[in-house]
Amino acid sequence: MIFQHPVLNPNLSFSWINHEKLRIEIFDQEITIGFDSEEKQKIAKVLFQRMSSRQDINEILAEDKAEEIFLQLAKLRLVTEGVPTRPGFVNSLAFQCELEAWFEYYHILNIGESKFDTLFFEGALSNAEVVRFIEEYYQVTRLCSSSVSAAIAQTIGYTDQVFEFFREEYGHEKLLRKSLIELGYSEGDITSLTPRYATRVLMNHLKLMSLTDIESFSSMIFLFEGTRVDADDYLSALELYNLPDKVIKPQRIHEDINSNGDHDLESLHMMKTFGEFSHRKAESIKYQVLNTYSIMHWMNNSLLEG
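The structure corresponding to this sequence follows.
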């Protein structure tokens, strides 16, 4: 259990549609959640009633179906931590939950996707551009190993869950390397590949954060670990292009590992370990997350330059 005292995100409001579906408004975005049984509907109503009034729900979560519903809400970043902090400080887990919700339901929708991402998901790229992306995805994953190992060296508060995440991430480039081999690259070709300039900037930035600002590094993990829906969208987009299934298969295995391991919750596990930090530190972390996302935009759009 990530949360000690889970409550609803303070930026949302909710109502029920015919007592069957849950309508949620958060940052002017609307989400509708349906439940496939009356039992789940009743559990969800109790969870929302209790969390909205900041009552304890741990006893309810002992039931499997309640835990399943709660996990769904946590993955949608509709839940936050309700443990109080000292004046002038913010709870690190609550900060992360609310930052990711703001990012998902406000920031990304307002600034839009990178041009590359838009074209990729529309199936409008050339195969050469998609292959360049697969190359850089490999490079990002390969270079990430040094940031991961540096982060481990910088922390003693991480839980076994977080170390397991790091262990799973280590060596993922071997999977993505298989996609390049299926595209016709030799081992020598792969070894001689050079990351694009924007990719080097992004990965050097991550390495710097892992060495000098472990809180910001932990916070920005969510930018790289998407949800099951994100993974399915990515794989569906790949299938729009004339790529052999043998090329896509390693990508599918990689996404499955991330999704089955609940990697979309890892940033919460990591940030929880810090307990609390000052408002000034919170603003600094948010700045670094936004900066990292901007660099990612630049890196993706650089793939259109040939």
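Residues 73 and 79 are 6 Å apart (CA to CA).
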